[in-house]
Specification:
about 425 residues; elongated; 2 domains; BirA Bifunctional Protein, domain 2; binds histidyl-adenosine monophosphate; 15 helices
Length: about 425
């Protein structure tokens, strides 16, 4: 047996986990600040949900799903994204019968069978939000503002917000026809996949990563050129609200998202410094999805951020190595003699009850080895439980930063520690 995590997956070990917790905290707090509540859905769903939800001509559905049959021959799929599951839950529990709009956030692992590279995994984590039941362009703006707020709180200012409108089914059909007219004469220059896409879903050709395809379709009409009046107005309003709130964006009329459900507003956030997989998040409106999955005719909008890419971006930020440090060990209790072990346990309990992160040696190391150990753990302060001091009712408190130490009465220990840590 090969003792290696499967290709495209990874472990997160300490101290890296502290960074994850920090970023997850920022995401959760920001979503709550904007009035969103958490939803948790299963990691696998009926395959059909994603076929219908994500779209059966998308790369995700045609190539990337982890689909398996369970023991009762049901076709199940590890979720490749979170939106379809949220919509399924909304319909299943008739949540739309309550207060609208419904504002949810979620996070967790997603699965796509793609070629792994920096920033691209087969199991990756997303944090996303979804709003159901409002057509207001102010909601589009809010969702984007929430995404931008997260980046600002994380100190990531080198981002680019790409914005587009992919219209409604009416204007999309007109656009589709125009695209086909333009694409048929250059069909031979398109890759094999795009020749199929041309028949099944020509909009997907725009998203193709093959350079020859991009060259063949350069200058073709964009969705923006074919927006109907309603879609045009909606897009204009979203841009106005973003402008009003000082959110800078790039109008990217070739932006096509990799999932079929989008209507109107579509957006992506890129951080170019992190390399080829620079899209750290993306989303948009999906006004037909809820009905397509079997629910009422309700609009929706949301986005998802890729956690790995967000963490990669965080590494490019000055001071990144200090992220998550607040969770590090603050106090180490060094015990001179094993006979004081029970006393050390009570003392440690007292320190921990004040909220100070603390630990001790359990392996009967020598005093010198305990100091080294405390240093390795990154403890800010070492408290020494020594024989001579105990006889005087005191303890030695050593500040590992300034290397200064003082003898303090046992009863004032926690107050002194708090003072030093403040
Ligand atoms: P998506 O653009 O497919 O959208 O994924 C969102 C983000 O997930 C990407 O921007 C990227 O950061 C991350 N991501 C995607 N695939 C991978 C991968 N293989 N490895 C690492 N990170 C990855 C959605 O999933 C939509 N459900 C977003 C949405 C929500 N739209 C509306 N509501």
């Amino acid at each position: 047996m090969e003792l290696k995590a499967p290709r495209g997956t990874y472990d997160v070990l300490p101290p890296e986990t502290a960074k994850w917790q920090y970023v997850e905290g920022v995401l959760r707090d920001t979503a709550r600040l904007f009035g969103y509540s958490e939803v948790r859905t299963p990691i696998f769903e009926h395959t059909e949900l994603f076929e219908r939800g994500v779209g059966d001509t998308t790369d995700i559905v045609t190539k990337e799903m982890y689909t398996f049959e369970d023991k009762a021959n049901r076709s199940l799929t590890l979720r490749p994204e979170g939106t379809a599951s949220c919509v399924r839950a909304l319909i299943e529990h008739s949540v739309y019968g309550g207060i609208m709009p419904v504002k949810w956030y979620y996070g967790g692992p997603m699965f796509r069978y793609d070629r792994p590279q920096a920033g691209r995994y087969r199991q990756f984590c997303q944090f996303g939000v979804e709003v159901f039941g409002s057509h207001s362009p102010f909601v589009d703006a809010e969702v984007i503002m929430l995404l931008v707020e997260v980046l600002q709180r994380l100190g990531l200012d080198g981002y680019e917000l790409h914005l587009n409108s992919v219209g409604c089914p009416k204007c999309r059909e007109i656009h589709r026809q125009k695209l086909v007219e333009h694409m048929v004469p250059v069909k031979e220059r398109l890759c094999h996949d795009c020749q199929t896409r041309l028949v099944k879903n020509p909009l997907r050709v725009i998203d193709c990563k093959v350079r020859a395809c991009q060259e063949a379709i350069a200058g073709f009409p964009t969705m923006y050129d074919n927006l109907c009046e309603t879609c045009h107005n909606h897009y204009a309003q979203v841009k106005t609200v973003l402008g009003d709130n000082a959110i800078a964006f790039i109008q990217d009329h070739n932006l096509v998202r990799g999932l079929d459900y989008y209507t109107n507003t579509a957006f992506e956030i890129h951080i170019p410094q992190i390399g080829a997989q620079s899209a750290i998040g993306g989303g948009g409106r999906y006004n037909g999805l809820i009905q397509a999955i079997g629910g009422p005719d309700l609009p929706g909008i949301g986005f998802a951020i890729g956690m790995e890419r967000l963490l990669l971006a965080l590494e490019t930020r000055p001071g990144a190595q200090r992220v998550g440090e607040e969770g590090r060990l603050q106090v180490f209790l060094a015990v001179q003699d094993e006979k004081y072990s029970a006393l050390a346990m009570r003392l440690l309990d007292r320190i921990r009850r004040t909220g100070i992160i603390s630990d001790r040696d359990y392996n009967q190391r020598s005093m010198k080895a305990q100091m080294k150990y405390a240093d390795k753990l990154g403890a800010r302060i070492v408290v020494v439980l020594g024989e001579a001091e105990l006889a005087r009712g005191t303890l030695v408190v050593r500040d590992m930063l300034s290397r200064e130490q003082q003898e303090v009465p046992t009863e004032s220990l926690t107050a002194v520690l708090k003072d030093l840590l403040a």
